[in-house]
Write a structure and sequence with these properties.
Strand order of the largest sheet of chain B: 6-7-8-3-9-10
Radius of gyration of chain B: 17 Å
CATH class of the largest domain in chain A: Mainly Alpha
CATH topology of the largest domain in chain A: ABC transporter involved in vitamin B12 uptake, BtuC
Number of strands of chain B: 10
Number of helices of chain B: 10
Strand content of chain B: 25-35%
Largest interface: A-B, 21 and 26 residues
CATH superfamily of chain B: P-loop containing nucleotide triphosphate hydrolases
Number of domains of chain A: 2
Structural class of chain A: mainly alpha
Largest sheet of chain A: 2 strands, antiparallel
Order of helices and strands of chain B: EEEHEEHEHHHHEHEHEEHH
Number of strands of chain A: 6
CATH class of chain B: Alpha Beta
Strand order of the largest sheet of chain A: 1-2
Strand content of chain A: under 5%
Radius of gyration of chain A: 25 Å
Largest sheet of chain B: 6 strands, mixed
CATH topology of chain B: Rossmann fold
Number of helices of chain A: 24
CATH architecture of the largest domain in chain A: Orthogonal Bundle
Shape of chain A: globular
CATH architecture of chain B: 3-Layer(aba) Sandwich
Number of domains of chain B: 1
Order of helices and strands of chain A: HHHHEEHHHHHEEHHHHHHHEHHHHEHHHH
Shape of chain B: globular
Distance between the termini of chain B: 38 Å
Structural class of chain B: alpha/beta
Helix content of chain B: 25-40%
Oligomer: heterodimer
Chain lengths: ~625, ~240
C-alpha cells in the first residue's frame, strides 16, 4: 500500500473512532459512579440509530436529520434515566453478577422491542443534509460526513472534560467514582447523581448511534457488536477515564483500519488476508494492554467498593436429604429412555439439558468457588466441539477417542488463556475472558479452510449404537454425572479449599503459603477441560457445529444458568441449567419474541430471587426447619 | 422529649450476623463536646456510622435537632445538619483541596429554634487551618496524614453542620496537628456546635470533652463528666489503658 493510501486509511479510522468513543465513554462514566457494567449500553446505541432513522425519514430535511440526532440523544437519555430508576436502583446492593444479568436481560428486551417497532429489515437512513459531498484529501475522496465525525469526537471529549473538571456536577461525579458512600455522608443525594450519570451515559450512546444513521444501516445485531467493541475500548483505555476512552477508541479503530488497508500480504510460504483479522487484531491489542497495564492505558487500580453486598454463604457438603434427592433424580433419568418411547423429543430435550448442566457446572466451578467471572466460557465449549468434530471429519478418529480429545483441546486453550486471565480480577477478568472467546470465535469463523467458516462442520453423527437417541442420552447422562461429581469432589479437596481461600482473600491465602495464581490457573484449566466435554457431546448430539453456536450468546447463557441456580450453591448450576435449557427448548420456541420473554424471566428472577432458585430454596428450607 | 441536640435510644447494629452494638443510649447537648471512649474494637466507630445511617442493619431511635432521623438515608441525615468525619479520612484523592471542599458544600442551616448555625466558606476554613490555605490546588493523594485530617474536618464543616461526629482525629498525626485539632474543637464549641468525639487517647479527650461515655464490647459501661473520669482510676484501668 502507498504511504498516502495508508494515511487515508488512518483518517477513516479516526471517523470510526468517534463512534466507538461515544459508546465507550458513557459505559465508562456509568461504571465509574454506579459500579455497574451496563451490558445494555450497546442496545442504547442501537436504539439511537433506529430512532434517528425515524426522525430523519418521518420529518425529513435538515430539521429531521440534525434536529433528530439531538432529539434522539435526549430521548435515549430519558430512556436511560427510566432504566436506572425502575430497575437498577433496586439492585445496587446485589452481587456484581446479578447486575450484569439484569442489564443483559435489558439487551434481550430492547432487541425484541426494536424488532417489534421497526421490523427485521436493515434500515438505511438518508445522507446528511449539507454534508452529502466529499472533499479531496491526499488525492482521494473523503466524505464530508466522515470529516464531521472526525471532528465531533474530540469536541465531545473536550466538553466532557470541562464538565467533569469545572462544574459541581463533575466534581460530584469524580468524587462518587472514588467513594460514593462518603459522598452520600456529605449530604449529596446519590440516587439523583446516579440517575443523572446514567442519563448522560445513555444520551451519549444514543448520540453516537444517531450519528451512524447516515453511514451504516440500523441493524438488530448492532447491540452485541457495539457492546463488545465498547468493552474492549473501555478496558484498553482504563475504566473511568474519559481521555483513556478516546485514546483507546483511536488505537482500536486505527488497528482495524490499517488491517483492512493492508489487505492480502504474500509471505512467500503463504498469504495472509489481514482484512479478515480485524477481530483478532482488536482483541490482541486488548490482551497485550491488559497484560502490560492491567488497569488500562490511563486507568488506575479500582478502589475497593464500600458497602457491597452481604458476605456470601459458605459452601456446605451435601446433606443426606440432598443425596437422597440426587439419587431419586438420577434413577428417574435412567428410566427416561423407557418412559420416553412415545415421545422421542423428551430424550433430545434431556440431552440438551445434560449438556447444559456440564457446561454450567464447569462455569460455576470457576465463578462461584473460584470467584473468576468468566464471560467467555463458550470458548472452551467451542474448542471441545470443534476439536471433536474436526478429528472425526478430518482424521476419521472414532467417537470415543474424539470425546477424549475434546476436553484435552479445551484444556490446552484454558491453560493458555487462563495464564493471562488469572492475573486480573473483577470486571477486567470478565472482559479478558470475553476477548479470548471472541478470538476463538473469530478464528473459527475466518479460518474457512479448516473449520468451514460460517457453515461450520456438518455430518458429525455418532456411530451405532450411539446413533439411537436413548443410548446417546445414557452416554451423556454418564458423562454429566461423572463431571458433576468430579467437580464437587475437587471443591471439598484441599485444592478446592485453596481456591476458595484465594477468592476470599488473595493476600491472606498467600500468607499461609498458597500460590493463589497457580491454584486459580489450575481451576480455570479444570473448568475449561470439563466444558470441553460438553462441547464434544454437543457436536455429536446435533451432528454439526457452527460458529453461531459458540458465539457470545452461549457464554451469556452459561452465566444466566449459573446465576439462575444461585452462585454459592453447588446444586445451583444443575438446577439453573435444567430450568434454562428446558425453557429455551420449550417456551422460547413458541414465540418470535423469545428474547424479550427470556429477558423478563431473568428480571423477575433477579428481583425476586437474588440468591438464585437453588439458593432461595435452601434459604426457605433453613427457615422452615426448626 | 429531651431537648438534647442528639438523643440516641437503644441503638443496636449488626455487620451481617455479627452484632456489634447493644442497646446504646446517650445524648449530646447543644454546644457540648461528648467523648465516646474505649479500646480498639469497642464499637466507637460503629456507633458513629450507625448514627449517620451508614450501617443498614440497625435498630433503635435517633433524634436530632428535634426530629427523628432513625430510618433516614445518610444524605438525608447529613442534610439535617449532622456532619461526619471518618476515622480513615476518606479524602477524594483525585480531587484537589478546593474540590474536596466543594463536594462538601451544603446550604446554610438553622437550629430548631431558628438560630442560624455557623456558615462556612473556604476562606473561613483556611483561616482555621492555615496549612490548607497554602495548598488549595494540591491533589488529595499528595497530602500528608495530618493535612488530610484537617481537610476531612474542613470538608465536613463545608456542610454547615449543627453537630459533628468526629472519629479519632488525633490518630496517627503529628503532635503539632493533634494540638491544632484540639484547638479546632474548642473553637467549634465556642461557635455553638456540638461534637461527638470517638477517642482512645485520654490526654486528647481531656483537652476538649465535657462529658464521656465509656464503651466496651458494644455496650456503655460508664458515663460521667470528664473530671469524674480523670479522677476514676478504676474505670480508666478497666476500659481504657492498654
Amino acid at each position: 500500500m502507498t504511504f498516502t493510501g495508508f494515511l487515508f486509511q488512518a483518517l477513516n479510522g479516526l471517523s470510526t473512532a468517534s463512534g466507538l468513543f461515544f459508546i465507550a465513554v458513557g459505559l465508562s462514566l456509568i461504571f465509574g459512579v454506579t459500579r455497574i457494567v451496563n451490558i445494555a449500553h450497546g442496545s442504547l446505541y442501537m436504539l439511537g440509530t433506529y430512532i434517528a432513522y425515524t426522525f430523519a425519514t418521518r420529518i425529513g430535511g435538515a430539521l429531521g436529520f440534525w434536529g433528530g440526532i439531538v432529539a434522539t440523544a435526549i430521548l435515549v437519555g430519558v430512556i436511560g434515566a427510566l432504566i436506572e430508576v425502575v430497575l437498577l436502583r433496586r439492585i445496587y446492593r446485589a452481587p456484581e453478577l446479578f447486575q450484569l444479568l439484569a442489564t443483559f436481560a435489558l439487551v434481550l428486551i430492547i432487541n425484541d422491542a426494536t424488532l417489534w417497532l421497526w421490523g427485521p429489515e436493515d434500515l438505511l437512513g438518508p445522507r446528511a443534509p449539507g454534508l452529502r459531498g466529499a472533499i479531496e484529501v491526499l488525492g482521494r475522496q473523503l466524505p464530508s460526513y466522515d470529516l464531521f465525525l472526525i471532528v465531533i469526537g474530540p469536541l465531545v471529549l473536550l466538553a466532557l472534560h470541562f464538565t467533569l473538571a469545572g462544574t459541581r456536577f463533575g466534581r460530584l461525579v469524580r468524587a462518587a467514582t472514588q467513594d460514593r458512600e462518603m459522598v452520600g455522608a456529605l449530604g449529596v443525594n446519590q440516587a439523583m447523581l446516579f440517575t443523572a450519570v446514567f442519563a448522560l451515559g445513555a444520551g451519549l450512546a444514543g448520540f453516537g448511534g444517531a450519528l451512524q444513521v447516515a453511514r451504516e444501516p440500523a441493524n438488530l445485531a448492532t447491540d452485541l457488536t457495539a457492546i463488545s467493541d465498547a468493552f474492549v475500548v473501555v478496558v484498553v483505555g482504563g475504566m473511568g477515564s474519559i481521555s483513556g476512552a478516546y485514546l483507546a477508541a483511536v488505537i482500536i479503530a486505527e488497528v482495524k483500519a490499517i488491517c483492512i488497508g493492508i489487505g492480502v500480504v504474500d509471505f512467500g510460504f503463504g498469504s495472509v488476508n489481514f482484512s479478515k483479522l480485524t477481530l483478532v487484531a482488536e482483541f490482541l491489542v486488548m490482551a497485550v494492554v491488559l497484560i502490560a497495564r492491567p488497569y488500562g492505558l490511563l486507568g488506575r487500580a479500582q478502589a475497593v467498593v464500600r458497602s457491597i453486598a452481604e458476605p456470601e454463604e459458605p459452601l456446605r457438603p451435601a446433606t443426606p436429604a440432598l443425596k437422597a434427592l440426587g439419587a431419586v433424580v438420577l434413577a428417574l433419568l435412567l428410566c427416561l429412555p423407557l418412559l420416553a418411547q412415545s415421545s422421542p423429543y423428551l430424550l433430545i430435550l434431556g440431552i440438551d439439558v445434560l449438556i447444559a448442566v456440564i457446561f454450567a457446572a464447569s462455569l460455576h466451578f470457576i465463578m462461584g468457588p473460584g470467584g473468576m467471572h468468566s464471560f467467555g466460557h463458550a470458548a472452551y465449549f467451542g474448542l471441545g466441539a470443534y476439536g471433536a468434530a474436526l478429528l472425526v471429519k478430518g482424521l476419521a478418529v472414532p467417537m470415543g477417542l474424539a470425546l477424549v480429545a475434546a476436553p484435552l483441546v479445551a484444556l490446552a486453550g484454558a491453560l493458555l488463556f487462563g495464564w493471562f486471565a488469572v492475573r486480573l480480577s473483577g470486571v477486567y477478568l470478565a472482559m479478558l475472558t470475553l476477548a479470548f472467546a471472541q478470538i476463538v470465535w473469530a478464528t473459527v469463523f475466518q479460518w474457512e479452510e479448516l473449520t468451514g467458516g460460517s457453515n461450520g462442520v456438518i455430518g458429525v453423527w455418532p456411530p451405532p449404537p450411539f446413533d439411537r437417541t436413548s443410548v446417546y442420552f445414557l452416554l451423556t447422562l454418564a458423562l454429566a454425572v461423572i463431571a458433576v461429581l468430579l467437580l464437587r469432589r475437587l471443591l471439598f479437596a484441599p485444592f478446592g479449599y485453596a481456591m476458595r481461600a484465594g477468592r476470599d482473600s488473595a493476600l491472606r491465602a498467600e500468607a499461609i503459603g498458597i500460590d493463589v495464581k497457580r491454584v486459580h490457573w489450575l481451576g480455570f484449566a479444570v473448568a475449561g477441560a470439563v466444558c470441553g466435554v460438553a462441547g464434544g457431546l454437543f457436536a455429536f448430539a446435533k451432528g454439526s457445529i457452527s460458529p453461531e453456536t459458540i458465539h457470545i450468546n452461549r457464554s451469556i447463557d452459561g452465566l444466566v444458568m449459573v446465576l439462575l441456580g444461585g452462585i454459592q450453591t453447588l446444586s445451583g448450576p444443575i438446577v439453573g441449567a435444567s430450568v434454562f435449557a428446558t425453557l429455551q427448548d420449550t417456551v422460547m420456541r413458541q414465540t418470535e419474541y423469545w428474547r424479550a420473554l427470556l429477558g423478563l424471566i431473568i428480571l423477575l428472577l433477579v428481583l425476586a430471587f437474588p440468591q438464585g432458585i437453588a439458593g432461595a430454596l435452601a434459604a426457605l428450607w433453613r427457615r422452615v426447619k426448626p | 422529649m429531651s431537648d438534647a441536640m442528639l438523643a440516641v435510644d437503644s441503638l443496636s447494629a449488626w455487620y451481617g450476623a455479627a452484632r456489634i452494638l447493644y442497646d446504646l443510649s446517650f445524648e449530646v447537648g447543644r454546644g457540648e463536646v461528648v467523648g465516646l471512649m474505649g479500646r480498639n474494637g469497642a464499637g466507637k466507630s460503629t456507633t458513629l456510622k450507625a448514627v449517620m445511617g451508614l450501617i443498614a442493619e440497625r435498630q433503635g431511635t435517633v433524634r436530632f435537632n428535634g426530629g427523628d432521623i432513625s430510618g433516614l438515608k445518610p444524605f438525608e441525615i447529613a442534610r439535617r445538619g449532622l456532619g461526619y468525619t471518618p476515622e480513615d479520612r476518606r479524602i477524594f484523592s483525585d480531587l484537589t483541596v478546593m474540590e474536596n471542599l466543594d463536594v462538601g458544600r451544603q446550604p446554610e442551616r438553622r437550629f430548631a429554634d431558628g438560630w442560624p448555625a455557623p456558615a462556612w466558606t473556604p476562606e473561613k476554613l483556611f483561616a482555621l487551618f492555615p496549612n490548607l490555605a497554602e495548598m488549595p490546588d494540591r491533589l488529595g493523594d499528595r497530602m500528608s496524614g495530618g493535612e488530610q485530617q484537617m481537610l476531612t474536618v474542613a470538608r465536613t464543616l463545608m456542610g454547615n453542620p449543627l453537630l459533628v461526629l468526629l472519629d479519632e482525629p488525633s490518630e496517627g498525626v503529628a503532635p503539632l496537628i493533634v494540638e491544632q485539632m484540639a484547638n479546632t474543637i474548642v473553637a467549634l464549641k465556642k461557635d455553638g456546635l456540638s461534637v461527638l468525639l470517638c477517642e482512645q487517647n485520654i490526654h486528647f479527650a481531656r483537652l476538649v470533652s465535657d462529658r464521656v461515655y465509656v464503651l466496651e464490647k458494644g455496650q456503655i459501661h460508664w458515663q460521667g463528666s470528664m473530671a469524674q473520669l480523670d479522677a476514676n482510676q478504676d474505670v480508666q484501668r478497666a476500659y481504657l489503658t492498654v
